[in-house]
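Dear support,

I submitted the protein below through the web form. The confirmation email said the job was done, but the results page showed an empty box. After a refresh the structure appeared. I'm attaching both so you can tell me whether what I see now is the final result or a partial one.
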Amino acid sequence: MLTKRIIPCLDIKDGRTVKGTNFIALRDAGDPVELAMRYCEEGADELVFLDITATTEKRKTLAKLVREIATHINIPFTVGGGIHTIEDVSLLLEHGADKISINTSAVNNPILIDQLSRNFGSQCIVVAVDTKRINNRWTVVTHGGRNPTDRITSEWAKEITARGAGEILLTSMENDGTKSGFAIDITNEIATSVSIPVIASGGAGTMEHFSAIFQHGKADAALAASIFHFKEIHIPDLKNYLFENKIPVRC
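What the results page shows now:
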């Protein structure tokens, strides 16, 4: 049985790690290099680095910072934010990223998924899907949840898979930063309908939330930010808890 992965997320703005609720009311959470090193030492399975304002501010991901982080860790490292072209991906992979994550650019230009998968292999292409319940349907949203689209989340997930993505990073914008638990229903729907791993994101607040998203949401991995940044939950303690609850994790 494949082990479930625990993935801290570093949301970056102006070179600092930040965290808020629903991507607003941001507060400083520390130096991203120091946090990355700490998580590596604590036993995180992977890291995700998202330049959360790269798309809205129309600028590229901070490649220099990517290289600095990559030189200090030895676990897989996903980078996202402002990625639009094959050249963008080449630059990030050259600077040390193991995977890249695209979101708005994939929604605007789905063929990009095919192109990146063909050029770099599906194993390093993660498509992030931000979703929100609109008119009682889980709908894809972009730009930090500010812009709704006409795409139904479950249908988009299947298209992403067919186009060659290697993983889906699914974030419930309603749950993000609330610490009220992951969105189990939509995570389960996606995870059981596609053939690629699904990373659940948005809402982690307790160890029980992780257990629930693995057992009931069927997620392959769970991502969180503030509870790790501010040491509300320690990764070794979380993994011990999951192991004791018969959830396979890499200890």
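Response: this is the final, complete result; the empty box was a page-load delay. Residues 21-25 have pLDDT under 50 and may be disordered.
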